[in-house]
Structures
1.
Amino acid sequence: MESTPTKQKAIFSASLLLFAERGFDATTMPMIAENAKVGAGTIYRYFKNKESLVNELFQQHVNEFLQCIESGLANERDGYRDGFHHIFEGMVTFTKNHPRALGFIKTHSQGAFLTEESRLAYQKLVEFVCTFFREGQKQGIIRNLPENALIAILFGSFMEVYEMIENDYLSLTDELLAGVEESLWAALSRQS
Amino acid sequence: MESTPTKQKAIFSASLLLFAERGFDATTMPMIAENAKVGAGTIYRYFKNKESLVNELFQQHVNEFLQCIESGLANERDGYRDGFHHIFEGMVTFTKNHPRALGFIKTHSQGAFLTEESRLAYQKLVEFVCTFFREGQKQGIIRNLPENALIAILFGSFMEVYEMIENDYLSLTDELLAGVEESLWAALSRQS
Amino acid sequence: MESTPTKQKAIFSASLLLFAERGFDATTMPMIAENAKVGAGTIYRYFKNKESLVNELFQQHVNEFLQCIESGLANERDGYRDGFHHIFEGMVTFTKNHPRALGFIKTHSQGAFLTEESRLAYQKLVEFVCTFFREGQKQGIIRNLPENALIAILFGSFMEVYEMIENDYLSLTDELLAGVEESLWAALSRQS
Amino acid sequence: MESTPTKQKAIFSASLLLFAERGFDATTMPMIAENAKVGAGTIYRYFKNKESLVNELFQQHVNEFLQCIESGLANERDGYRDGFHHIFEGMVTFTKNHPRALGFIKTHSQGAFLTEESRLAYQKLVEFVCTFFREGQKQGIIRNLPENALIAILFGSFMEVYEMIENDYLSLTDELLAGVEESLWAALSRQS
DNA sequence: GATGAATGAGACTTCATTCAT
DNA sequence: GATGAATGAAGTCTCATTCAT
């Protein structure tokens, strides 16, 4: 019934936590093996090598992040602001379903070990949000900043807030989320 | 007269660039030595070891970042919004005077190799801006979000924008800076 | 009726080819399993371990090589030169019946993994030919060189020629074989 | 004065002995380091990796073997048979100056780790002797066998004899050498 | 009997650090 | 003070072998 072997999942989970916590280079394969409660050699049955592991992990989570955002937007929406709300909600959903994953993505998205495929996956994610912004700019709703600046503001803020939550510098409440969403909307939208 | 020997400076500069570009773990001491045009052993005359080097580098730049912000605020100011402008300008000044330094700070601020002292230096920087925010909240100018959320939004956005610039995804113009400042002010301030 | 199970034979054949081609150390047990179309664990039903496998393989083929030579000589013979012809023919027969086997023997006869028993089997082979040479020396037909030198010349040449054939640097023809036999006879026999 | 560092020489010597004795795969880098009385890491200051080491070792000795043969032939010679004598003498000289080297060459000349350059060096050696044989065939002195067969007989015999000497199955005397030379000449030359 | 997923010992290799020059 | 050759601890990865199915 299980399509993905149990051990592979354990390796994936352990990797995510360790990479997010310590970074790719500072995480050793024996560390991963121990945390996944698996022999060191077992990792290599499921992943060609350490780089392969980090790339698969990265792509899977970036893709799922994108899915969360997309499926948020796919819902019927009530105006552009509501579309933004869905995107924001998608981002929140992702962070809730995949603890530490956003921290992992953030600290590894510039890594030299990323393959072209991984970079493309990330690029696709960025592109999707850019498209949404372009539409808003056409409608005169979104600020007239370069798309990359808008992305940097949205993702930079969100990821940093998220990291504060994971590190217990902030506690995750609906109130906080609503406040951050409002703040980011103000950052991105033209002020009336 | 020269308090800091020439070689030490060379090591510092080379380290900054390499750490910013490749990260702490992926940067080797021989690499630093070569880029600093210094023998590998010479580094150990000036720094106890690699961790010591990265910590001194981190602290120095965090402190200088703080100085830039503080000295921005120290100027006579014309209302709270103008104070924010000075802080923003201080941040910009820092990035201009210390290329790659903000990238280095961003990617190393969670490193396991950071000493308590380094963490405190970073904390002090955060604290300073928090104080500024608290004041603004008292005056009803700044949003009623947790201070850490405000910091996350300000620093997260700024660092990400800055990284885009360094990686040539954005070009540094006064217009861009003005736009980003305006956006961040909107994110942080209560909307009238 | 079948005394040797089919799978064991498959393992033997696959091992021979791989050991001959890549050598003992560069051949992995999974490789053997795959080529023998057998599970990796199955090999251990028939052989205690990798060393055991290579030793049994070595002994079997050395013994069979010896048999080919012996049975060549066993035929009624027409003088000493004709005896040599039978020996040579036996060697040729062996190489024809057991492709790659001589290459395997040649490249593994000095291996550190060989047991005393394997070395003795090889020694027995050498001894048999030595005895034949001693007889020839008594009759004044074979050169007055140390037996080991005679063996080295005969086996060294033959194995090297054989390897050239297997690697397609030489093509196996009756003419070639006749020529080589004549050459080796000249090398070993006293010139009239 | 010393152009090649002492340690590199020690590594070379230790490698040669170990590779000759146990083969490439069965020889570990720590083994080499220990025998060379050098730290394991030191080997990598002089050789890129294990394959690089074995290839440099192989090429150097093959080239020197060729030089010995060539410089033997370069001497003024008194007829074709005398030329063969010089070649044989060159081979003997090489084995005397480079103990174990011929055994190393013999057991590694088919290795999968050899680079194209190494194969070419070996090919050049073979080619040189082939040319000598071709000349002899034109003069009707050398047997009408394929060149590769002649090479196989000469090298195969010589290397095997040599290995017997190194393993103390034969003792190296002028008498033995004279006898082997005479035997090999008989193997290669047309009988009058 | 047969299998192949799992293991961990041990191989190759890198690199922070030392120290003789 | 400055150097860089030398080191060995530690990391990545392979593969002979076992054992639950």
2.
Amino acid sequence: MPELPEVETVRAGLAPALTGARVLAIEIFDERSLKRHRSGPADFVQTLVGARIASVVRRGKFIWMPLEFDSKSATQQAGTPQLALVGHLGMSGQMLLRKRGDAPDKLTRVIINCETKRGKLIEFRFIDQRLFGGLQLDELVATPDARAGGFSPNAAKAKWWTNLIPASAAHIARDPLDEFFDADAVWLRFHKKHSGVKRVLLDQQLLSGIGNIYADEALWQAKLHYDQPADTIKRTTFDSLLASVRSILEKAVAEGGTSFDEQYKNVNGESGYFDVSLNAYGMTDQPCGRCGKAIRRDSWMNRGSHFCPNCQRLRKTA
DNA sequence: AACACATCCTGACTGC
DNA sequence: TGCAGTCAGGATGTGT
């Protein structure tokens, strides 16, 4: 499912169409996609209809759209919290952009009808097979470090929402592609952890955006076993692991995300191409691209860990 | 506090 | 064809 590169591809696809767009109407086909919106589906609709989308922002795997309300500007000035439409793709979510009236997409859970700032009528469709993802309206709060909440292309000029983040995503760490990502600070916490390095890489509160695929790929590139305890890893190894993470994420972003299965789609419903360059994930029994030994898949945390048993060995220190 | 684990869900695909 | 079993890239709450 979607990890940082897929979510960024979606964000980048949504932004040109949705920035400045106004919400006209909402169709809910499955309320479970709104379960994280605590005030209920009716409140979701009532609040969101009429709002204008100010931007599309991402941190890690979270996407949010700061909202502006013409009719409520007076109360906003009086201290009402700023709101954002927050989305998470979970394991199987997609966010598609369609023209009003286009053929239906399977498993569509919510449609948000919008008018773009150029006056085009479009549908933002939230599709989700497993319902682990969802949409919600959430209050924006100040970031703890008073810097940008997340990535968006028009954040260069400070806007009212620049240094805000949805409360529900405030605990999510900056991702390795974030311009304010602090490698030294991450190292300080990383090297004290006794858990296996893969578990630590997947901890969104330490660094965000990495999921099972890119964890396996980065560990393969850095020649680390998934269960190598983080506190046995030297700073130089951590640095090269981080360099691997960054280069893999950047490459995947440049290629528009992975499409290992049919779940991941960009906003036009198209798959990415990164799967051709996977070295570990999904390569069970295939020869390792470095040494030729068969890639192994271990059952791990209710999912899979793919690694080369020759290149990626558990060591006393790494 | 830090860590490990169970749990939330459905649909597509595989193999008998 | 039908059906049971398997699998899936995440996040969170709970218990130790």
3.
Amino acid sequence: MTIRESILHIYPLPEASLRLLMELLEPVQLRKGYILLQADKVEKEVYFIEKGIVRAYAEREDSDITFWFGQEGDIVISMRSYVDQQAGYESIELLEDCNLYRVHSHTLQQLFETDIAIANWGRRFAEKELIKTEERLISRQFRTATERYQELMQHQPGLLQRVSLGHIASYLGITQVSLSRIRADIR
Amino acid sequence: MTIRESILHIYPLPEASLRLLMELLEPVQLRKGYILLQADKVEKEVYFIEKGIVRAYAEREDSDITFWFGQEGDIVISMRSYVDQQAGYESIELLEDCNLYRVHSHTLQQLFETDIAIANWGRRFAEKELIKTEERLISRQFRTATERYQELMQHQPGLLQRVSLGHIASYLGITQVSLSRIRADIR
DNA sequence: CGCATTTTTTATCATTTGTAAAATGATATC
DNA sequence: GATATCATTTTACAAATGATAAAAAATGCG
């Protein structure tokens, strides 16, 4: 999926608006392990993923939990920085070498205020993420850990190949030991 | 908080846009127990809560889980209907007699396409809800049920007075029995 | 008030999940 | 090939939570 396609996949933009948005994007290549955004900082950049996979995680004392994976076509953002100019709760780590496109959050905000199609594109982006997050919250409660794992295998089989089971376990809301037990039981 | 204030609280609108939006709103009074929106239907209405409290819940076989409470100033919406014209996952039940304002989702969508301030208002609304939902997902994982309950008591003490503990327990992701134990331990 | 209904608490037992530590497996580097 | 490092699985035990049933308390209503 090209960047162009992934932008249009969120919300259809007229050619002029699309061009406005795409002109802002600067390509960046970064290596696996790089920390793209840091929690507790007001992050001013937004990234589009062309190639690679990243995780968003929140830290606490010794452990961290992964609550989002970003892949080709996804947008990486420090939500609280982007919305409220406040330090965010998430850090972003590259789990593979990545080809990204970067845009200053401020520049994007300016487009939102001047181009109505892009404002609606930004609206739709947030709405879609919201639906996905709510569904995960609900799934946590209705389904057992085993069911959630099987669901993930069905819907995102590629993820299992690209991401360590420790991160997957955290994403599913269980420990790695627990996930290992589940995998043994299913077998 | 008036409807006017709660709209502006989400995102500042110029007077003209605010008027456009408010003119669409029709007041409705409904009684406790009324089911405002139904899961598995494409719901065409959006509601603003002026007075009262509601819950969003998802059903499954015998049980249901509450994953959102709406109070004065909040907006009630079937997210998937609103975004994708698809049947939603949530039903909405009034937990008190409510004063609401209703607007057709379609009418609102038209405003989004013609008034850039309102489009950005809609964007900000979704973004704020997204942040709240992500934070809850993270909190589920980091904090024990006891901590989550104490957090809720601190941040939303009013909720405990207005909503049954069964719904609260479900919202916290535990059973009512479990919540009752927690309350006994804290005492 | 008195009865019926709903909500909340208490008790018991089964199950799930977490914690900690060790064992195994995989991969990279010298 | 030996060693170091990291990921995964396994084991044993402890703690948290769920399921169920029943009692107690609170609420609503004629």
